[in-house]
Amino acid sequence: MAFAQPLQSHESVQELAKQDNLTIPHHYVQEHREPTFVPNDSSHFPSIPIIDIHDLIKEKSNMDLQLKNLRSVCCNWGIFQLVNHGVEKSLVDKMKHVVVEFFESPIEEKMRYKLKGGEYEGYGQTILHAQGQKIDWADRFFMITNPRNRRKPNLLPEFPPLLRDTLEQYLQEVQKLGMTLFGLISQALDVDKREMFDVFEDGMQSMRMTYYPPCPEPDLVVGLTPHSDAAGITILLQVNNVEGLQVKKDGMWIPVSFLPDAFVVNVGDILEILSNGVCNSIEHRAIVNATRERMSLAMFFNPKLEANVGPSKSLTRNTGNPPLYKTVVMERYLKEFFSRKLDGKTFLEKMKLKNEDVDES
Ligand SMILES: O=C(O)CCC(=O)C(=O)O
């Protein structure tokens, strides 16, 4: 599949943003960006729910209540701040440090991992799928990290040793955390845990590091186009304490204020499908700052490439509810997702069963 590439002269927004008296090139200028909700005197930003994983695992006496809360958070929000997650602070801090170091390295160094035409793994900008498509105000590095045999030999294995080793350790720890979360979510949703693990254990995992440079006219651009993730869950780390993530809640864009040492966990489309619509995959975007750069690291947890993505059999059996979404093989699902530009939750809409569809699962 060959995609048109962004203009060669702007291979890095980070480099572009260094120019004095910069006029924002038109291909970054958004024609219509929905405004952020502005609280009035009597209202304030609704805050993202907090899940304390220590309470969930250790407070056995309270387990039912905690699981009910987790279910309600996944269903009403589709995003939460995860505290007491058990990943060592020293490892998280080291990870943050190496991400900053990566983006601060000379452009020639980063270009060793440059996205090649038609591919979606490597270092670069928004992948273009259509003439005139706008480019996000961000540089990114995206790659598949699991299964290991799908790793591109020119990416992670070629990283500078400190970045590579820290990332390997971080991936391992966050992977364990991800599986703990899937276990708890299966209990909260009344999905058979074995079924959940068959889908996600040693599944397809990927990561994205993003650098959002400061922009002299931040309202003209967007750092990350609104979308929901094509994943089960995403575990997100804000690297340098600069905010910019926003989520769409009840039709309004609200900022996410990261708690110190918390991860932000997003419910993705695949968990919404697997839960037969009980969970809400959260639409999110990132805006950029006029004076400060921002960095984030997202880890995406997907089913195994050969797994079926569809409503959970145990759930539809337990509830008696008919499946509301189609079932497709993960590999095909991802191919279709990556061949389209990000556009809110439109991809998920395509997965909904219509009257004329026959469920082939
Ligand atoms: O930068 C952020 O806070 C969001 C990143 C994200 O959601 C992504 O990379 O998909």
UniProtKB/TrEMBL annotation:
Ranges where the Fe2OG dioxygenase domain occurs: 203-303
GO molecular function: metal ion binding; oxidoreductase activity, acting on paired donors, with incorporation or reduction of molecular oxygen
InterPro entries (alphabetical): DIOX_N (IPR026992), IPNS-like_FE2OG_OXY (IPR044861), IPNS-like_sf (IPR027443), Oxoglu/Fe-dep_dioxygenase_dom (IPR005123), Plant_2OG-oxidoreductases (IPR050295)
Stored PROSITE patterns: FE2OG_OXY (PS51471)
Keywords recorded for this protein, A-Z: Iron, Metal-binding, Oxidoreductase
Alphabetical list of Pfam families matching this protein: 2OG-FeII_Oxy, DIOX_N
UniProt similarity note: Belongs to the iron/ascorbate-dependent oxidoreductase family.
Official protein name in the record: Fe2OG dioxygenase domain-containing protein
Species name: Tagetes erecta (African marigold)
